[in-house]
Design goal:
Layout lengths: L1 E8 L7 H8 L3 E5 L2 E6 L3 H9 L7 E6 L12 H5 L7
Length: 89
Amino acid sequence: MNIYTVSYELNHPQGYKDFFERLESHPHCRVMDSFWLIQSEAKASEISNELMRLLKPTDSVFVAMLTHEWASGGAHCDNWLNATEQGLD
């Protein structure tokens, strides 16, 4: 399975329960407020399309596959990414 970054901008104060439930349905790590890492066999475009259906027209989402080279500072997902079962070794 691949690891994807998911970043989003939500422009309304509420109404995103289905969006967050969909993100949480994948193996995941929430890196920052609006930046997640998820594991999926789907393509980035499929993930983006699936999430956009759950957002409002003024919201946005960005999905990209994570490569083997990454670095972080102060993020709490290092152990999640380093786990051999995550496929980035």
